[in-house]
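Journal club side-thread
Mid-discussion, someone asked how the predicted structure for our own chain would compare to the paper's figures. Pasting it here so we can look after the session.
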Amino acid sequence: MTLIASHTVALAMPRSEAWARLRDLTQAPHYVPGLTGCRFHPGPREGLGASRRVFRKGGQWLDESVVHWEDGSGFALALHKAQGGAPFPFRQASFHYTLEDAGAQCRISTSLHYQLRGGRVAEWLMRRAFEKVVREIGENLKAYYESGRTQNGDYDMRRALAAGHDMS
C-alpha cells in the first residue's frame, strides 16, 4: 500500500511565476533541509528523464529522476540510489510538486508517496517524521520563492561550487 504525506501552501505569485522557479531543478538546495548541492546526470536538465544527484551533509547522496512532468503544473521525482532502487527505509518513494491556480496567486502541494520496508509498525513509527519533512519543504519553498533568500542553513553555494556540484 502506498502512503502519502502531503502539505499545501499558498504562494504570493501567479502560477506561471512559480512554475518558472519550480522547473529549475537546481534550486532544491535552497529549500530542502539538509541538502548541500546537486549535480545533473547526463541527459536532459528538465522534463521527463531529467535526473540529478543531491548531496546531503555528512557526504550522503540520493538520486532523483523525473518520472512525471506536466508543463506549467508540476512533476514527480523517483527517489533512488543509483540503479539500486529506493534508499532505506523505503521500498519505493517519489516526491511530487503540484501547482494550482488560486485566483491571482497559486498553491503548491508537496507530497511524498512511499512504501516502507518493515510493514505497518515501520509505517506507524515513521509517518510523523515524513509529514514533518514534507511540511518543512513546502514552507521553506514558499519562503524562498517569496523572499529570494535561501531557507536551508546547510546549503552554502560557494562550498557546493568548490566541491564540483553543478548548480546551473
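Post-session note: The beta strands are 3-11, 35-40, 51-56, 61-70, 74-80, 90-102, 105-116.
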